[in-house]
Specification:
The protein has about 200 residues and is α/β, with parallel strands linked by helices. About 35% of the residues lie in helices and about 20% in strands.
Length: about 200
């Protein structure tokens, strides 16, 4: 009887635990910020669409790029992460800031359009660029970075669905390679330190 009760509790709790954990599923427990050197194959170039035309990662060679996967209808994880990233950029000197860009990649290409992505990303910081691809392109880029996302139906909601997704900031060095992965919930100071480390490479 006790075992049956435990099973029922676990079955009821699993969806809640999954919802809480999905945002940080890909943090991978590799070190204080992530230490991408443990996974040399992660990352790579991509070309996606912005409101101002195609954007490729290789356009930013010589700069440090923060890559983040999310979507404009995200109720909490994306705004929190982008706010922390923007706050980190405010800690940089003007000289450092000029060498840093952020690329916000939509994991909801069915609803996110380039113009909306531009406005959303720029709301957090003018150095942030919003880009979107086809569903196939999105899946390909996410796979390169090990980013997780999936549709989550919202029963009884006008939105119809949300998107569960991982919440990792990928720090791309001047040479286009991922040099660090920053976990969800990291402070602006931690993010700024990772940026400065990448700039100094």
């Amino acid at each position: 009887m006790a075992m049956s009760r435990l099973k029922r509790v676990l079955l009821l709790a699993l969806p809640v635990l999954a919802g809480l954990g999905v945002g940080v599923w890909l943090d991978r427990a590799m070190g204080p910020t992530g230490d991408a050197t443990a996974e040399a194959s992660i990352g790579g170039d991509f070309t996606l669409q912005s409101a101002d035309g195609p954007v490729s990662l290789h356009d930013f060679r010589g700069k440090v790029v923060l890559v983040y996967f999310g979507y404009t209808s995200c109720p909490d994880i994306c705004p929190t992460s982008l706010t922390m990233m923007a706050s980190a950029l405010k800690l940089l000197s003007p000289e450092e800031l000029a060498q840093v860009r952020g690329i916000f990649i939509s994991v909801d290409p069915e609803r996110d359009a380039p113009q909306g992505m531009k406005a959303y990303a720029a709301y957090f910081h003018p150095n942030f660029i919003g880009v979107v691809g086809t569903p196939a392109q999105t899946a390909e880029v996410a796979a390169k970075y090990g980013a997780y996302y999936r549709k989550a139906p919202y029963e009884g909601s006008a939105m119809g669905y949300g998107v569960d997704h991982s919440s990792t900031v990928y720090v791309v060095g001047r040479d286009g390679r991922v040099v660090d992965q920053i976990r969800h919930g990291a402070s602006p100071e931690t993010i700024a330190a990772a940026i400065r480390k990448a700039l100094a490479r």
